[in-house]
Design brief:
There is one protein chain. This protein is of the alpha+beta class and 160 residues long. Helices cover 25% and strands 19% of the residues. The protein contains three helices and six strands. β2 and β3 form a beta hairpin. α2 packs parallel to α3. The longest helix has 14 residues. The structure holds tetrahydrodeoxyuridine. Tetrahydrodeoxyuridine binds next to α2.
């Protein structure tokens, strides 16, 4: 038996003013998108803003449904729209923001959204910067690797 340890690296910012201009713009777009989130069941409105390599920003928000699993998170709403409209353009960054949180903590993407972010990072073979907004802390990670280590990858599938 061998015990291994994985470490993740991320940056924490105590206020928006300390965040680099381009990241700040993306957070502002995610905040704006959060206010249009359709979340009558959870009351937890979330927005996401995706920055493409060509500079275009696509936003999305969570869309809930009376049949609960039929809804979709903000991250996937934005990413799937971006990928459907600009299939050849890599995603450079995503910012995620919640309108208000009970915990007061920064937003943490769910497992399914992490897997989806990883798919597009792998596809483009370039890291996606992940910006997680919160009322007192903003967290920035350089790649999905930090949020989803040891993940399932397309190489694990036996294709053809
Ligand atoms: N949600 C998101 O849209 N993104 C996250 O990062 C966390 C959770 C949504 C899904 C659901 O509509 C609501 O928040 C409560 O889970």
């Amino acid at each position: 038996m061998k015990e291994l340890t994985l470490q993740i690296k991320y940056a924490e910012y105590p206020e928006l003013a300390m965040v680099a201009m381009q990241d700040r713009l993306l957070i502002e777009k995610a905040r704006e998108a959060a206010s249009n989130g359709y979340a009558p069941y959870s009351g937890f409105q979330v927005g996401a803003a995706v920055l493409l390599e060509n500079g275009i920003i696509i936003t999305g928000n969570n869309q809930e449904n009376a049949a609960y699993p039929s809804g979709l998170c903000a991250e996937r709403t934005a990413i799937f729209y971006a990928a459907s409209q600009y299939p050849a353009i890599p995603i450079r960054a995503i910012a995620v923001s919640a309108l208000k949180t009970q915990s007061g903590d920064f937003v943490k993407p769910c497992g399914a959204c992490r897997q989806v972010i990883a798919e597009y990072e792998d596809l483009a073979k370039s890291p996606i910067r992940i910006i997680l907004d919160g009322p007192s802390t903003i967290v920035i990670l350089d790649s999905i690797d930090a949020l989803l280590p040891l993940r399932f990858k397309k190489e694990d599938l036996r294709l053809g």
